[in-house]
Each structure stands twice: as structure tokens, then as C-alpha cells.
Design a protein that fits this description.
EC 2.4.1.229; glycosyltransferase; 718 residues; two-stranded antiparallel sheet; 11% strand
């Protein structure tokens, strides 16, 4: 299967996007017509010389024919000898038969499953018989050719003997007989030195072939890793020095999956075994996690092609089935426990979901430049870009002016492929060492497979590798000096630590502003409202409230978590795992995150000082939005179809909060019960109840009203 079909190059025209004008195309060129050469006739008076020339030409043609036959025979013989090694026999056993067959249809080279061993045994026998039959047929044909040649040209050969004193075809005939003897040896099971070949059992032959194939694959992978600059033992940077780190200290770094180039497939580098090792708990690795996510994205690409004309309910139903098949096995393997042991070294993992973000590279530079301990900072970035692979990238909706009635004139234009912020960062000599050390992990998602921030944040959370703290943020930020140390100290100052979450809406900045210094009073998320927008389907939106002044002795609690910034210990990921069943959603993630965290025993705090700033992006900037991509992918331009999809996905959140029109019975009547798939794992926790949460934040779900939260606005709860 081609790269286009298996999804490694997602936006390649499969969704009827306009073709890129910069893409290369093959063109046919005409060659000049050859002129017919005139041949001068032989002089009749020179008959003896002419006969010699004709005889020489005939002999040369016969020698060429015989050499060609010998070459064909030799190639066939070599194919016979190498037949076992040329067959796709896969690798080690242990993969489920069904998965094996499905992946084989995709063209993958996978380990050989137990159930397929007998099939392979029978196939080997058929191949062996077939190769022997081919060799026998070739041998007979060659003998006939030689015999016919000798009988029909004996007179000419005798004349040659008289002319040259020896038969010029003797060397050719001698080589032909040697070739026949060698082929006979192959058929009789002998080697060139006439020593009997070892008669192997078919199982032994297959095992030997597998071993040789695996060795060849290892060599190819080693060459590929060398090309990409991958090292077997990754090191962490400490200032300008590099300190070795063992597998035991950082299992997620072995083997190191490189952040560049984009679309490098983890399975191609390290083999399918990294997936089975990760799912079986044998040896979970970051490379294995990335391989699982990439396999899902490959199948998502095909899914989107197949359902381009489907209605919204069908798309949602089939998408949930896809998640269940390819992502839920990872969820089940590490339910209620971390994938990697949490290291108590003060390290921080920063989760970044970047949708066609031109500031990603600068955000990374700012984060490392201003960190007190950059050697302890790890980043997991989900880069959702238009890479310009055989399609023309598009802007978002740009405001180009006003019409005569004062209404905005908007336009969507062609544009160059997006800048890869990971590449910008890693190519900067000042920061390259962080990419080489494994502190930057990247998952690349073609724009066509992007379906909103909730999915991107799920992917990014899976790139966590055992770090002490978890920070979720957007990819267009600036950082105050020593932000990492100050946030760590602020979290520890909270009364509920270690089950404390810091969160706020950061202050804004413009790209021309001076370096960010931080220090302003942190915002408090203390209010909410039920949206009246038809697009948002009455979902609860959170907002800011009062302030506590600048001299508070410790952080105090707030009501809600902002998805664009929160900081907590990494145990948060085990207690409140990110939900893979919220595709095409833009609203609703914050109320769901807040409810789930609080009912799982986590208290939410506002940091007393702001240490990061966020670029708030007005529509007039013309930046692309994921819902515009959704419209193009499904052939329905505009946000309308994404709104239909979101209206179904959001019912999962509304059911969680307890909306009166989104009960289990109501969902069944509407045919949307699929949104409750695996809900028990991503709903309210068991430490505190949902009703207690609604009372805690003063939400009347029956009347769809948000009341005043006095304790939050007055900073009364520590």
C-alpha cells in the first residue's frame, strides 16, 4: 500500500483539496526519430570475403543468444536459492491473528502470529516444490536449445575450426555445461563444492529465514537511525554538559524516537514489537506509545476518505468504533496506573497542542530560555500542520475591509505550507541539545486528520514519560524568568498539595511586546454561564471573577480549570485520564475537566502571580481554524458540518453534568447512545459526587443558571 493509502502522508489530495502548484509532475518527452541507415551491398566479385563476414556475424549472434539464455538460467537459479529470504515471513510471534491479518492488508511487515504458523509451513512447501519445478523446466529448455544449436550449426562450426584452428564457441559451451552441472547440484541438494547440503526441517528453515530477515532489518534500522542522528543511549543535558541517563531512570527514552523529520514512523524504525511490548507491560516505551498513536492516525485517514459523504451520526458512530479498536487497548493496559514510574526529580512535562501555529518554535525557545532548570523540562507537542503535500494550504477567514454598509469583507486565500515550529527550535544551535537528548517529543498530525483541541490534548498527554509534574498549555506563550521553579513552589504552597491543581487564564501579549517579566496578579476562575449560542448548544462556559490582592499568604481555591493552562503533579493523569471520545469539540472541555478533577479529590487553585502570557487571537488575524478544515475534509465548506458533529459529541459532556434533556433514555431515543462508550472511565470520580460539585460551584442544572460563588470571589477557601 502506498504512503497516501496508509495515511503517513494524510493531505495528499484524497479529500479533493486543490492540488498544490508547487508539486512536481512527471512529463513525457519525445525523442528524435532515428534516421534509417543505408547499407552498401557487398561486391559480388568478393564472394569469399563476404561469406566469412556472414559466418562471423551468424556465430556472434548465436553466442549472444546462448549467453542470454545462460544469464536467464543463472537468475532463475539465484531466485531459487534465495526464495525463502525473499518471502515476507515477518518477525517474532505474539501478535493477535486478527490484528496480523488486518495489518497485512495494509502492507505492513508484522510478527508471525501463532495461528498463522501452519499456513506458513504449507506455503513454504508449495514454494519449494514450485522452485524445483521451475529449475527442472529451465534445465530441459536449456538442453534443448544447446542440442538444437549444435545440430543445426555443425557445418558452420567446422568451417570456423578450419579458419581459426579452434572452435570459438568452446568456452561458451563449457560455461553452459558448468551451469547445467550446478543446476543439477541444486536439484540434488548439493552446494558448489559438491558437499551435501544440510537437510533442514521446514520449521528450522523458516526460523533461519526469519533470523536472517530480522538481521537485515536491524542493519537497515541502524542505518536509518544513524541518518537521523539517533543514539542508543540518550543523555540529558545539564547546562552545557551532557550526563548519561540509564534505562532504569528514563525508560521512555530507550529507544529514542526523533522529533524530526516529520512523519517518521516509529514501527519502521524499531519494529512492531515496540507496540506489543508496550501493550503487554513487558517494556513500555515512548516509541511504542507513538507507534500506537500513529497507527490510529493511519486508519483515521482512511476512515475520513471512506466517510466523506456520510451524515454526522454515522461519522460519530464509526469514529467511536475506530477509537475503541486502536486506542482503547492502550487505555485498558494502563487503567488506574501510570505507564511509566513517576520520577521524583522535579522534572516538568509540558503538553502543547499546536494547530497550524506560527509561534510554536518561539514558545519552545521562551520556555527553555527562561526555565531555571531547562535540563528538567520535557515537551510533548502535537503538531497539526498543513504540510503542503500535493495540496494547496489555505488561510483562515481574513477580514479584507468593509462593504458599503459597514459589514466586514472576508476572504480565504492560498498560502505557503505551515512553518514547523519543532524544526525551528531544533535547528537553533542554542537549543539543538534538547532535541538530541530526548526532551522534545513530537507527534505529527496532518491537518486533514485534525479534529479539535480535545483530541490534540489527549494525544499530547500520552507523550508524558514519567516526569514529576504535568503542565498543559497552548502553543503561543511567553514565559517569565524561572517560571518552572516558581510554579513548582506555588503548587507545593497549596494546602491540598500534592492533590492541588494550579490554573488561570493568563494575561495577553502582542508579538511586538518587550520580553515578558510576569508578576501580575493571577486571574481567578469563579464564574460561569450557560451559552445561548446555537453553535455551542447551551454548554457551560467558565469565566473569571474577583481577585485576592497581591499579599495573600498562600494560594486559595477556585472553582474551575482552564484548559489553556494548568499545572499539577503527574498523578493527575492517572486519576483524570484524558478522554479520547470527544472529537470535533471546541467548547465543553473545561467544565468536564473541572468536574472530573474535583470529584476525584483534586482541589483547584489560582496561582498568586502570573508567570506565563498568552496570545489571544482575534478573528481578523485570519489564522486557520480546525472547523474550517473539517468542512473541507467532508466536502461541506464552512463550520456547519463541524457544528453538527460537535452537537453529538457534546452530549457526552452534557450527560456528565446532568442536563435534563440529555438523560440516558433521551440519548437512546435520539439514537446517540454511542456517546456513552466507556463513560465510566471518563465521567465523575468517586471521591466526591457530581451533586456535591454542582453545589460547590453553585450551578442550578435544572434552571441552567450559574450563581455567585462567594468563597471563590472572596478568596475564602484555602
Amino acid at each position: 500500500m502506498s504512503d497516501v493509502e496508509n495515511g503517513t502522508k494524510g493531505n495528499t489530495g484524497d479529500f479533493n483539496f486543490p492540488k498544490s502548484s508547487s508539486s512536481n509532475s512527471n512529463t513525457n518527452t519525445n525523442t528524435p526519430r532515428n534516421k534509417k541507415k543505408r547499407v552498401r551491398p557487398l561486391n559480388p566479385s568478393n564472394d569469399g570475403g563476404a561469406k566469412i563476414i556472414i559466418a562471423l556475424l551468424a556465430g556472434a549472434g548465436a553466442a549472444f543468444l546462448l549467453s542470454l539464455l545462460l544469464l536467464m538460467s543463472r537468475l532463475e537459479s539465484q531466485e531459487f536459492e534465495n526464495g525463502l529470504l525473499n518471502s515476507n515471513v515477518g518477525g517474532a510471534q505474539g501478535v493477535d491473528d486478527t490484528l496480523y491479518e488486518e495489518q497485512q492488508e495494509m502492507g505492513g511487515v508484522l510478527p508471525l502470529p501463532n495461528g498463522a504458523w501452519r499456513k506458513q509451513h504449507d506455503l513454504m512447501q508449495q514454494q519449494q516444490k514450485g522452485q524445483q519445478q521451475i529449475a527442472t523446466e529451465r534445465q530441459s529448455k536449456l538442453l534443448e536449445k544447446i542440442k538444437g544449436f549444435k545440430d543445426s550449426n555443425m557445418d558452420k562450426m567446422n568451417k570456423f575450426n578450419k579458419l581459426f584452428g579452434a572452435n570459438p564457441l568452446d568456452p561458451v559451451m563449457k560455461d553452459a555445461h558448468k551451469e547445467l552441472d550446478r543446476m543439477q547440484g541444486v536439484l540434488e541438494g548439493k552446494q558448489k563444492n559438491d558437499k551435501p547440503m544440510k537437510k533442514l526441517d521446514l520449521h528450522e528453515q523458516l526460523a533461519d529465514a526469519v533470523h536472517k530477515k530480522e538481521e537485515e532489518k536491524k542493519k537497515q534500522k541502524a542505518a536509518r537511525k544513524k541518518e537521523l542522528g539517533i543514539v542508543d543511549h540518550v543523555a540529558l543535558t545539564q547546562g552545557d554538559k551532557v550526563a548519561a541517563i540509564s534505562d532504569e531512570d528514563a525508560p521512555h527514552l530507550q529507544p529514542h524516537f526523533p522529533p524530526l523529520p516529520p512523519h517518521t514512523m516509529s514501527v519502521e524504525l524499531f519494529g512492531e514489537k515496540i507496540i506489543t511490548d508496550t501493550l503487554s507491560h513487558n517494556k513500555p516505551t515512548m516509541a511504542g506509545i507513538i507507534a500506537i498513536l500513529q497507527r490510529f492516525l493511519q486508519n483515521l485517514h482512511q476512515f475520513l476518505k471512506d466517510h466523506r459523504d456520510s451524515k454526522a451520526p454515522t461519522v460519530i458512530n464509526e469514529y467511536f468504533a475506530l477509537v475503541t479498536k486502536y486506542l482503547v487497548p492502550l487505555e485498558e493496559a494502563y487503567r488506574d496506573k501510570p505507564v511509566f514510574p513517576i520520577r521524583e526529580d522535579g522534572s516538568i512535562f509540558m503538553s502543547l497542542g499546536a494547530y497550524r501555529d506560527h509561534l510554536l518554535g518561539e514558545t519552545l525557545r521562551q520556555a527553555f530560555k527562561n526555565a531555571a532548570s531547562p535540563d528538567k523540562l520535557f515537551v510533548g507537542a502535537v503538531v497539526q500542520n498543513c504540510f503542503g503535500i500535493d495540496v494547496t494550504c489555505r488561510t483562515g477567514v481574513e477580514v479584507k475591509g468593509q462593504d458599503e454598509h459597514g459589514r466586514p469583507i472576508t476572504k480565504i486565500s492560498d498560502r505557503e505550507p505551515d512553518v514547523n515550529g519543532i524544526e525551528q527550535f531544533c535547528d537553533d544551535p542554542e537549543y539543538t541539545k534538547y532535541c538530541d537528548s530526548g526532551q522534545i517529543r513530537a507527534l505529527y498530525v496532518n491537518e486533514t486528520e485534525s479534529n479539535g483541541p480535545t483530541t490534540a490534548r489527549y494525544f499530547a498527554s500520552k507523550l508524558w514519560g514519567g516526569e514529576t509534574y504535568f503542565l498543559q498549555a497552548d502553543a503561543h506563550l511567553r514565559f517569565a524568568p524561572e517560571w518552572d521553579r516558581l510554579y513548582t513552589e506555588e503548587a507545593k504552597a497549596a494546602k491540598s498539595y500534592p492533590k492541588a491543581v494550579l490554573s488561570a487564564y493568563p494575561p495577553g501579549f502582542s508579538e511586538g511586546d518587550p520580553p515578558y517579566k510576569g508578576g501580575t496578579v493571577g486571574t481567578r476562575l469563579c464564574t460561569c454561564a450557560f451559552s445561548t449560542s446555537d453553535v455551542e448548544h447551551h454548554i457551560i462556559r467558565i469565566n473569571t471573577g474577583g481577585t485576592c490582592g497581591e499579599n495573600a499568604n498562600a494560594p486559595t481555591q477556585i472553582a474551575y480549570i482552564a484548559a489553556g493552562f494548568f499545572f499539577a503533579r503527574a498523578e493527575f493523569l492517572t486519576d483524570v485520564p484524558f478522554d479520547p471520545f470527544l472529537p470535533w469539540c471546541f467548547m465543553g472541555e473545561e467544565i468536564a475537566l473541572s468536574l472530573r478533577a474535583w470529584t476525584n479529590g483534586w482541589d483547584i487553585y489560582a496561582p498568586r502571580k502570573n508567570l506565563i502570557a498568552h496570545q489571544y487571537r482575534p478573528g481578523r488575524m485570519g489564522l486557520p481554524k480546525f472547523w474550517e478544515n473539517t468542512g473541507r475534509v467532508f466536502g461541506r465548506p464552512g463550520p456547519g458540518f463541524n457544528t453538527q458533529l460537535q452537537s453529538i459529541s457534546l452530549k457526552r459532556v452534557k450527560y456528565m453534568v446532568g442536563y435534563k434533556d440529555t438523560t440516558k433514555e433521551a440519548l437512546e431515543d435520539l439514537g446517540h447512545s454511542v456517546v456513552l462508550t466507556d463513560f465510566q472511565h471518563y465521567g465523575p470520580g468517586e471521591t466526591r459526587t457530581m451533586d456535591e460539585f454542582l453545589e460547590h460551584v453553585n450551578i442550578d442544572i435544572e434552571k441552567e443558571q450559574c450563581g455567585n460563588i462567594k468563597w471563590c470571589n472572596k478568596c475564602l477557601m484555602d
